[in-house]
């Protein structure tokens, strides 16, 4: 039997006992921790006859659960982009990098055994953009307007656009907005 999943967040002993054969490269909570969490949630649910707190799982609440896309940080990022302010971007970056880990990637860091290269050896953004291509997204998944917007954006930066799975819009190179979107086969 092949198990195509990997456990993240459960201890290796829990995985070995209850999900034999499943890969678990990152350990996590064990049986005792699961029991404590269940009892804590049960206590909250049945100890008082008052409404449970909203928590903020689906909607941001200042006193609720932490969100990866914290509105204050998102506002900082938008402000940095709109004003082209590197110092405001640094405030955003410091806020993201200074918070407690929320995702596995928050636990990763870059390490290299190589020396940095000089920026004049780095390929220009214009050359990099020529290799970019907006991915094929079915016309059924996005509206025609969304496809055209993607094509316009990619064309403006000198990149390519792929209109979708084929057969829907054979050629849209005559559009008034200078959309050059074609179906790749």
Flag low-confidence runs: none
Helix-strand string: EHEHHHHEHEEE
Oligomer: single chain
Q: What is the approximate shape?
A: extended
- What structural category arises from helix and sheet content? alpha/beta
Overall structural domain count: 3
Total strands: 6
Strand order of the largest sheet: 1-2
Q: How many separate helices?
A: 6
**CA-based gyration radius:** 24 Å
Largest sheet data: 2 strands, parallel
Strand content: 5-15%
Q: Work out the helicity level.
A: 25-40%
Average pLDDT confidence is 80
N/C terminus separation: 37 Å
Description of the structure:
With 185 residues, the chain is of the alpha/beta class. The chain folds into 3 domains: 6-46, no CATH class; 71-105, no CATH class; 125-182, no CATH class. Helices cover 37% and strands 11% of the residues. It is built from 6 helices and 6 strands. The strands form 3 sheets. It has a two-stranded parallel ribbon. It has a two-stranded parallel ribbon with strand order 3-4. The longest helix has 16 residues, at 31-46.
Sum this structure up briefly.
The protein is of the alpha/beta class.
List the helices and strands and how they pair.
Elements lengths: L5 E5 L1 H7 L4 E7 L1 H16 L24 H13 L2 H13 L26 H7 L1 E2 L9 H13 L3 E2 L9 E2 L8 E2 L3
Helix pairs in contact: 3-4
List keywords for this structure.
185 residues; alpha/beta; 3 domains; two-stranded parallel sheet; 6 helices; 6 strands
